Amino acid sequence: MPNLGLTFTKVAHSAPPHAWFGVSAIFHYLGPSFAVLLFPAVGVLGVAWMRIASAAVIFAPWTKPWRTIKRADPRTRFMLISLGGCLAIMNTSFYLALDRLPMSLVAAMEFVGTISVALYGLRTARNFAALALAALGVFLLIDVKWSTDPLGLFWAFLNSALFVGYIILGHKISEGGASGGVERLGAAMAIAFFFIMPIGFVQAAKAFATPVLVLAGVAVGACSSVIPYVCDQLAMSRLPRASFALMLALLPATATLLGLMVLAQIPSGQDMIGVLLVMSGVAIHKPAAPEAPIPKLASTAP
C-alpha cells in the first residue's frame, strides 16, 4: 500500500495552493446545491446525515481514523473532537438555513464572522470599514423578504459562527503538513458521524429502500465534505491563515453563481450589490499577525 503521507505531500505540491482553493470553492457550494434538490425526498436532517455518513465512509479506508484517534495525544484528540462536533453542527445548520433562505444569503453571512474575528484581534480603521461593508451587504441580502424568517436567519448565523471555528481548527490540523491534515480530517469526520447519528438517522433511513436516493446522498457527501475539505487541507498546508481568509472573498460569488445554475435562484440587482459588498469586506479585512510558531501536532504516521 502506498505511503499516505508521501502521496498527499506529492499531491499538495502538484499544483499551486490557489488552484486547490479554486476547486474547493466550486465544490463547497456545488454539493449543497444538489443537496437542496434532495430535501423534498429525504428531508433536511436526513440529507445532512447522509452527507456526513458517506464522507466518513469514504475517508475511512484512506485515513484509518481509528489509528489516528488512538495514537493522538490528549491535545490533538480534543482538537479532533472539537472539529468533529463543529462539522456535524455546522453542516446541519447550513442545510436548515438553505431550506428556508437563498444560498447567496447564507453564503454571505458565513463570512461576516471571519471579519468579526479579525476585528476582535486587530481593531483598525481598515477592519471597521471591512465589517461595515460586509454588514451592509448582508443587510441588503436579507431585505424585508427574508427578515420575516427569524428561524432561517438563526440557522444561518449559527452556521456562520461555526464556519469560523472550521477555518481555525482546519488550519490547526494542517500544521503537520497536507498528509497529517487529511488524516486528522478523516478522524474528525468519523467523530462528526457519531455526533449526527441520532439527529438525522430516522429521516435518512426512509431513503435506504431507494438506491437512487442513497447514491445521490453519497454523491452529496463526496461533493460537499470530501473534495472541498481535502482541497482545503492541501491549500491550508501551504498558505498562511491570513492569505486563506483573504481568498474566502470569492466564495459568496461562487455560491450565487451555483445557486443560479443549479437551483434557478436568480439574484436581483440588490442581491448582486450585497454580494459584492460582502466580498469587498472579506477582501480588505486584515487578520491579526501570525502567532509565534507552535509545536507540531503529534504524528499519526505508522
From TrEMBL:
Stretches that traverse the bilayer: 34-58, 78-97, 103-121, 128-146, 152-169, 181-202, 208-231, 243-266
The protein's matches in Pfam families, at most eight in alphabetical order, are given as: EamA
Cellular component per GO, a single term: membrane
Keywords of the record, alphabetical order, are: Membrane, Transmembrane, Transmembrane helix
The organism's superkingdom is given as Bacteria
InterPro entries, per database record: EamA_dom (IPR000620), EmrE-like (IPR037185)
Residues of the EamA domain: 151-284
What is the recorded name of this protein?
A: EamA family transporter
Q: Which organism is it from?
A: Bradyrhizobium cytisi
